[in-house]
Amino acid sequence: MLDKGCIYLVAVNGYLLGYETGVLEFTQETLVDVEIEASYRIGLISNADYRVVIVKGDEPPAGVEKDRLCGLRTILSTITNEQQYTLLASASQIVTWHLSFKFCPRCATSLDAHSNELAKICGSCGHHQYPRISPCIIVLVKKGDRCLLAHGSKFAPGRYSTLAGFIEAGESAENAVVREVKEEVGIAVGNIQYCFSQSWPFPHSFMLGYMADYVEGDITPDGEEILDADWFSADNLPTLPPKFTIARRLIDRFLTEAGHDLVEQSSPFFTTE
Q1: Residue 14: which of 69, 59, 51, 55 has the closest Cα?
Q2: What pTM does this model have?
Protein backbone atom coordinates (compact mmCIF):
# COMPACT_ATOMS: atom_id res chain seq x y z
CA MET A 1 0.00 0.00 0.00
CA LEU A 2 2.92 2.36 0.70
CA ASP A 3 5.48 3.45 -1.89
CA LYS A 4 9.13 4.45 -1.66
CA GLY A 5 9.87 8.07 -2.40
CA CYS A 6 6.61 9.34 -0.93
CA ILE A 7 6.30 11.63 2.07
CA TYR A 8 3.54 10.55 4.42
CA LEU A 9 1.47 12.51 6.91
CA VAL A 10 -0.17 10.21 9.44
CA ALA A 11 -3.54 10.42 11.18
CA VAL A 12 -4.43 8.47 14.31
CA ASN A 13 -7.96 8.60 15.72
CA GLY A 14 -8.80 11.22 13.12
CA TYR A 15 -5.99 13.63 14.01
CA LEU A 16 -2.83 14.46 12.08
CA LEU A 17 0.33 13.81 14.07
CA GLY A 18 2.42 16.86 14.84
CA TYR A 19 4.26 18.81 17.49
CA GLU A 20 4.35 22.51 18.26
CA THR A 21 7.25 22.67 15.80
CA GLY A 22 5.11 21.39 12.92
CA VAL A 23 3.47 18.36 11.32
CA LEU A 24 5.38 15.05 11.41
CA GLU A 25 6.52 13.52 8.12
CA PHE A 26 7.19 9.82 7.59
CA THR A 27 8.70 7.58 4.92
CA GLN A 28 7.71 4.08 3.84
CA GLU A 29 10.53 2.65 5.95
CA THR A 30 9.30 4.33 9.15
CA LEU A 31 5.80 2.94 8.65
CA VAL A 32 6.60 -0.72 7.92
CA ASP A 33 5.22 -1.92 11.27
CA VAL A 34 2.06 0.23 11.15
CA GLU A 35 -1.31 -1.25 10.21
CA ILE A 36 -2.80 1.04 7.55
CA GLU A 37 -6.52 1.55 7.03
CA ALA A 38 -6.22 3.82 3.98
CA SER A 39 -3.76 5.99 2.08
CA TYR A 40 -4.61 8.94 -0.20
CA ARG A 41 -2.43 11.10 -2.44
CA ILE A 42 -2.52 14.84 -1.78
CA GLY A 43 -2.58 16.01 -5.38
CA LEU A 44 -2.39 19.75 -4.71
CA ILE A 45 1.35 19.69 -3.95
CA SER A 46 3.33 19.70 -7.19
CA ASN A 47 6.98 19.41 -6.11
CA ALA A 48 6.71 16.29 -3.92
CA ASP A 49 4.59 13.15 -3.66
CA TYR A 50 2.73 13.73 -0.40
CA ARG A 51 0.19 11.25 0.90
CA VAL A 52 -1.90 11.00 4.02
CA VAL A 53 -2.21 7.71 5.87
CA ILE A 54 -5.02 6.70 8.24
CA VAL A 55 -3.79 4.24 10.86
CA LYS A 56 -5.90 1.39 12.22
CA GLY A 57 -6.20 1.51 16.00
CA ASP A 58 -4.99 4.28 18.26
CA GLU A 59 -1.23 3.74 18.40
CA PRO A 60 1.09 6.12 16.49
CA PRO A 61 4.18 4.87 14.64
CA ALA A 62 7.30 3.99 16.61
CA GLY A 63 9.35 6.96 17.73
CA VAL A 64 6.46 9.39 18.06
CA GLU A 65 6.55 11.21 21.39
CA LYS A 66 2.92 11.06 22.51
CA ASP A 67 3.30 13.72 25.19
CA ARG A 68 4.44 16.22 22.54
CA LEU A 69 1.48 15.74 20.18
CA CYS A 70 -0.80 18.75 19.67
CA GLY A 71 -3.88 19.77 17.72
CA LEU A 72 -4.22 21.01 14.15
CA ARG A 73 -4.65 24.67 15.11
CA THR A 74 -1.33 24.61 16.96
CA ILE A 75 0.38 22.91 14.02
CA LEU A 76 -1.07 25.48 11.61
CA SER A 77 0.35 28.29 13.72
CA THR A 78 3.87 27.11 12.75
CA ILE A 79 3.48 27.41 8.98
CA THR A 80 5.38 30.01 6.96
CA ASN A 81 4.01 29.68 3.43
CA GLU A 82 0.85 28.91 1.49
CA GLN A 83 2.00 25.48 0.32
CA GLN A 84 2.42 24.28 3.91
CA TYR A 85 -1.08 25.49 4.70
CA THR A 86 -2.51 23.78 1.62
CA LEU A 87 -0.80 20.53 2.57
CA LEU A 88 -2.20 20.50 6.10
CA ALA A 89 -5.67 21.69 5.14
CA SER A 90 -5.96 19.09 2.39
CA ALA A 91 -4.65 16.22 4.54
CA SER A 92 -6.94 17.08 7.44
CA GLN A 93 -10.04 17.30 5.25
CA ILE A 94 -9.24 14.00 3.53
CA VAL A 95 -8.96 12.30 6.92
CA THR A 96 -12.27 13.79 8.08
CA TRP A 97 -13.96 12.72 4.85
CA HIS A 98 -12.57 9.17 5.01
CA LEU A 99 -13.82 8.64 8.56
CA SER A 100 -17.19 10.36 8.04
CA PHE A 101 -18.28 8.74 4.78
CA LYS A 102 -17.95 4.97 5.09
CA PHE A 103 -21.21 3.85 3.49
CA CYS A 104 -22.93 4.53 0.19
CA PRO A 105 -25.67 7.19 0.63
CA ARG A 106 -27.74 5.43 -2.04
CA CYS A 107 -27.69 1.78 -0.98
CA ALA A 108 -25.76 1.70 2.34
CA THR A 109 -23.04 -0.62 1.00
CA SER A 110 -19.54 -0.09 2.39
CA LEU A 111 -17.46 2.25 0.24
CA ASP A 112 -13.99 1.41 -1.08
CA ALA A 113 -11.19 3.79 -2.00
CA HIS A 114 -11.12 4.56 -5.73
CA SER A 115 -8.00 3.29 -7.49
CA ASN A 116 -7.37 6.42 -9.60
CA GLU A 117 -9.28 9.33 -8.07
CA LEU A 118 -9.51 11.02 -4.70
CA ALA A 119 -12.86 9.38 -4.18
CA LYS A 120 -14.66 6.35 -2.77
CA ILE A 121 -16.75 4.03 -4.88
CA CYS A 122 -19.65 1.72 -4.08
CA GLY A 123 -19.08 -1.80 -5.35
CA SER A 124 -22.84 -2.40 -5.44
CA CYS A 125 -24.38 0.56 -7.27
CA GLY A 126 -21.25 2.31 -8.57
CA HIS A 127 -21.87 5.60 -6.75
CA HIS A 128 -18.81 7.85 -6.43
CA GLN A 129 -18.35 9.74 -3.15
CA TYR A 130 -15.95 12.71 -3.26
CA PRO A 131 -14.55 14.68 -0.32
CA ARG A 132 -17.12 17.04 1.11
CA ILE A 133 -16.60 20.81 0.83
CA SER A 134 -18.99 23.15 2.66
CA PRO A 135 -19.11 26.73 1.27
CA CYS A 136 -19.21 29.55 3.82
CA ILE A 137 -19.01 33.32 3.85
CA ILE A 138 -16.86 35.35 6.21
CA VAL A 139 -17.21 39.12 6.32
CA LEU A 140 -15.64 42.17 7.89
CA VAL A 141 -18.21 44.95 8.30
CA LYS A 142 -16.86 48.52 8.15
CA LYS A 143 -18.30 51.71 9.65
CA GLY A 144 -16.02 54.65 8.89
CA ASP A 145 -12.68 54.05 10.60
CA ARG A 146 -14.04 51.19 12.70
CA CYS A 147 -14.77 47.53 12.00
CA LEU A 148 -17.25 45.12 13.54
CA LEU A 149 -15.72 42.26 15.55
CA ALA A 150 -17.62 39.68 17.56
CA HIS A 151 -16.99 37.20 20.35
CA GLY A 152 -18.44 33.79 19.50
CA SER A 153 -19.72 31.22 21.97
CA LYS A 154 -16.91 28.81 21.03
CA PHE A 155 -14.10 31.38 21.12
CA ALA A 156 -11.29 31.56 23.63
CA PRO A 157 -11.89 34.17 26.36
CA GLY A 158 -11.31 37.69 25.07
CA ARG A 159 -10.94 36.74 21.40
CA TYR A 160 -12.96 38.58 18.76
CA SER A 161 -13.27 37.88 15.06
CA THR A 162 -15.27 38.58 11.92
CA LEU A 163 -18.73 37.17 11.25
CA ALA A 164 -19.15 33.95 9.27
CA GLY A 165 -21.74 31.35 8.33
CA PHE A 166 -22.70 28.59 5.91
CA ILE A 167 -24.28 29.31 2.54
CA GLU A 168 -27.72 27.71 2.33
CA ALA A 169 -29.02 25.66 -0.60
CA GLY A 170 -30.01 27.93 -3.50
CA GLU A 171 -28.45 31.02 -1.91
CA SER A 172 -25.80 33.30 -3.41
CA ALA A 173 -22.73 34.13 -1.35
CA GLU A 174 -23.65 37.83 -1.31
CA ASN A 175 -27.15 37.10 0.00
CA ALA A 176 -25.60 34.86 2.62
CA VAL A 177 -23.49 37.81 3.81
CA VAL A 178 -26.59 39.96 4.28
CA ARG A 179 -28.53 37.20 6.01
CA GLU A 180 -25.78 36.03 8.35
CA VAL A 181 -24.93 39.56 9.53
CA LYS A 182 -28.61 40.29 10.17
CA GLU A 183 -29.15 36.99 12.00
CA GLU A 184 -26.04 37.20 14.15
CA VAL A 185 -25.88 40.89 15.12
CA GLY A 186 -29.09 42.49 13.83
CA ILE A 187 -27.69 45.08 11.44
CA ALA A 188 -28.06 45.69 7.70
CA VAL A 189 -25.06 45.86 5.35
CA GLY A 190 -24.40 46.89 1.77
CA ASN A 191 -21.60 47.50 -0.76
CA ILE A 192 -20.55 43.88 -0.45
CA GLN A 193 -17.17 43.22 -2.07
CA TYR A 194 -15.43 39.89 -2.53
CA CYS A 195 -11.78 39.83 -1.37
CA PHE A 196 -10.27 36.32 -1.28
CA SER A 197 -10.91 32.73 -0.21
CA GLN A 198 -9.40 30.08 2.03
CA SER A 199 -9.89 26.38 2.59
CA TRP A 200 -10.72 25.87 6.26
CA PRO A 201 -10.25 22.34 7.67
CA PHE A 202 -12.61 22.61 10.66
CA PRO A 203 -13.86 20.26 9.45
CA HIS A 204 -14.28 20.84 5.67
CA SER A 205 -15.29 24.44 4.97
CA PHE A 206 -14.43 26.69 2.05
CA MET A 207 -14.43 30.32 3.16
CA LEU A 208 -15.33 33.15 0.77
CA GLY A 209 -14.06 36.39 2.30
CA TYR A 210 -15.93 39.70 1.90
CA MET A 211 -15.88 43.31 3.02
CA ALA A 212 -19.19 45.10 3.58
CA ASP A 213 -20.32 48.55 4.73
CA TYR A 214 -22.66 49.23 7.63
CA VAL A 215 -26.07 50.54 6.49
CA GLU A 216 -28.36 50.69 9.52
CA GLY A 217 -29.43 49.09 12.77
CA ASP A 218 -28.14 48.60 16.28
CA ILE A 219 -25.79 45.77 17.19
CA THR A 220 -27.84 43.03 18.87
CA PRO A 221 -25.93 39.73 19.33
CA ASP A 222 -28.11 36.68 18.87
CA GLY A 223 -26.99 35.28 22.25
CA GLU A 224 -26.33 31.82 20.83
CA GLU A 225 -23.56 31.94 18.24
CA ILE A 226 -22.54 35.52 19.07
CA LEU A 227 -22.25 36.58 22.71
CA ASP A 228 -20.84 40.07 22.21
CA ALA A 229 -20.03 42.40 19.31
CA ASP A 230 -18.85 45.98 18.93
CA TRP A 231 -17.13 48.50 16.68
CA PHE A 232 -13.35 48.64 17.04
CA SER A 233 -10.82 51.14 15.73
CA ALA A 234 -7.16 50.42 14.98
CA ASP A 235 -6.02 51.74 18.37
CA ASN A 236 -8.35 49.61 20.53
CA LEU A 237 -8.38 46.19 18.88
CA PRO A 238 -9.19 43.15 21.06
CA THR A 239 -7.39 39.81 20.90
CA LEU A 240 -7.53 38.84 17.22
CA PRO A 241 -7.70 35.49 15.39
CA PRO A 242 -4.43 33.62 14.61
CA LYS A 243 -2.34 34.88 11.72
CA PHE A 244 -3.09 31.89 9.46
CA THR A 245 -6.84 32.64 9.34
CA ILE A 246 -8.79 34.41 6.64
CA ALA A 247 -10.47 36.45 9.40
CA ARG A 248 -7.11 37.94 10.36
CA ARG A 249 -6.34 38.55 6.71
CA LEU A 250 -9.57 40.56 6.33
CA ILE A 251 -8.74 42.60 9.43
CA ASP A 252 -5.23 43.24 8.09
CA ARG A 253 -6.67 44.46 4.81
CA PHE A 254 -9.00 46.84 6.60
CA LEU A 255 -6.12 48.24 8.65
CA THR A 256 -3.73 48.66 5.72
CA GLU A 257 -6.40 50.27 3.52
CA ALA A 258 -7.03 52.74 6.37
CA GLY A 259 -3.34 53.63 6.36
CA HIS A 260 -2.28 51.84 9.54
CA ASP A 261 0.98 49.96 9.95
CA LEU A 262 0.60 46.40 11.17
CA VAL A 263 2.23 45.73 14.54
CA GLU A 264 2.62 42.11 13.45
CA GLN A 265 2.56 40.79 9.91
CA SER A 266 -0.52 38.69 10.44
CA SER A 267 -0.65 36.68 7.24
CA PRO A 268 2.90 35.65 6.29
CA PHE A 269 1.85 33.52 3.35
CA PHE A 270 -1.16 35.51 2.12
CA THR A 271 -0.76 39.16 1.19
CA THR A 272 -3.42 41.61 2.37
CA GLU A 273 -3.96 43.01 -1.13
Answers
A1: 55
A2: 0.91
